[in-house]
Request: fold
Amino acid sequence: MAIGIEEVLNLERVGDTILFNCATGLFDLDYFVPRLSELSAALPVRFSDQDKDAGMYSQAEQITWEITSLLPSFLAFVVEKNERFLAAKLLVETLLTSGIGLEGSALPKGLASTATGLNMGLGKLLGSSYGLSLEAGRWVPRD
Reply:
């Protein structure tokens, strides 16, 4: 589903939840290269404080969404989270995605639901996109 920036701003104003994840941004270099000086001056840098297991740090980033605000037009579409990637930035995500301990889990209902979805996505991706087969509890290459 594609939505424009005005719709995103309207949703944010009323407090609705939106998801925009640009794991992949495809840009027309014929448009960008001649405008590099202009774009780099106009593109904001976002600083956010992070509190992870490794400790506190600040992160600077320029994100795809902000780049799209500098374009005359763009197209955005949604791909279901479980269809696009395997969550594994943190060890806990890796464990949740793996499905370890899901049966008879003492996880809170919402977290168990997320873990189940991630694990189903893992199985679908490994079995289709990555060409593996589940044999005796292990994912192995197909012969």
About this structure: The CA atoms of residues 117 and 128 lie 16 Å apart. The first helix runs from residue 5 to 13. The chain has a mean pLDDT of 76. Residues 5-68 form one domain.
